[in-house]
Amino acid sequence: MNQDEQDIRQLIESWLSATQAGDVTAVLSLMAEDAMFLSAGQQPMVGRDAFARGLSKVLSEHVIESTSEIAEIEVSGDLAYCRTKLTITITSKHGNLPMLRSGDTLSILRKGADGRWVLTRDANMLASAA
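RESULT FIELD:
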């Protein structure tokens, strides 16, 4: 496994850990300013600010725990894609039953001039796994 693949794997682990910890700032540091998120049946979420608003709202009422099984990473120069099987448990802070979502994701990453990989595009096919 080369250094780029190791760095991308670490980015994914950092994302999951920061989300579970409720650290929105840390999550935002892992994405490009113009990041775009695609989900079935919804308009694209464009930009760090939009993502921050959405994540902050969810985390104000819930805790998110995730696992990601990396199926594929392909690096070509300063661009890479990563395909994963993602499972998310969203637990209410108010005692409601947890929601379980699971599915495949496809993420595009870009390596900056500083050598850091950031997420630039993400598409997920998560569905209720109940």
